[in-house]
Automatic annotation (TrEMBL):
Coiled coil: none
Classification via InterPro entries: TPR-like_helical_dom_sf, TPR_rpt
Keywords from the UniProt entry: TPR repeat
Phylogenetic lineage: Bacteria, Pseudomonadati, Pseudomonadota, Alphaproteobacteria, Parvularculales
The keyword Lyase belongs to this UniProt entry's keyword annotation: no
Species this protein is from: Hyphococcus aureus
Keyword Protein transport on entry: no
TPR repeats: 155-188
Domain of life: Bacteria
Descriptive protein name: Tetratricopeptide repeat protein
Amino acid sequence: MIATLLLLLATPAETLSPRYADCINLIEADLELGRIAAQQWVGEGGGAEARHCLSIADFKAGFPKLAALRLEEIAQRNDAGDDYVRARLLSQAANAWLEGEEPKRAEDALNQALALVPDSAELQLTAAKVYAAQERWHEVITAVTTAEDGDLVSAETFVLRGRARLVFGAHEKAAEDVVAALSLDPTNVDALVLRGDLAQVGISIDVFLDTSQEE
């Protein structure tokens, strides 16, 4: 979940250097060697790209808090990019803080991102997770709905909104979110768990999503 978000590039693909791509590819192929290579690149003065690659290596190596700190530091650098890029870096930091079980620090990073790009629907996907970690269910619903209005959706955040709606007893609406989540990801474990929780309160969700057929 969070690893996928962290692996989203912080800058447009056409502006990234070949070395950045090589760094990411090496991390994917051999994490230990990739992390060493990223550290060497940083030591050579590789700038924001080198540090971003190293933050990904740190995260994948099981050091999400270190990754979060690096991402926040990159967002302050002159070579980080424009406000959108900085906001995305801070959003990635928030996700890393969540992985490190630091929801308050995640919210701090999120708020910095929102201060840079307040109308970003993308940031609302992160916001939903930050609020859910603190069981702020009203805000979860608002964040997911705002992201959806901006044509950004994910199975994960549909599940979070469904969970929030279940808390408030809006069972039919929660069921709609389960259907939406399973439509995007038929094997999403959290959606299936929520489906089971709704069944226990008398809401049966009859969803058939055949993913076995081939052209």
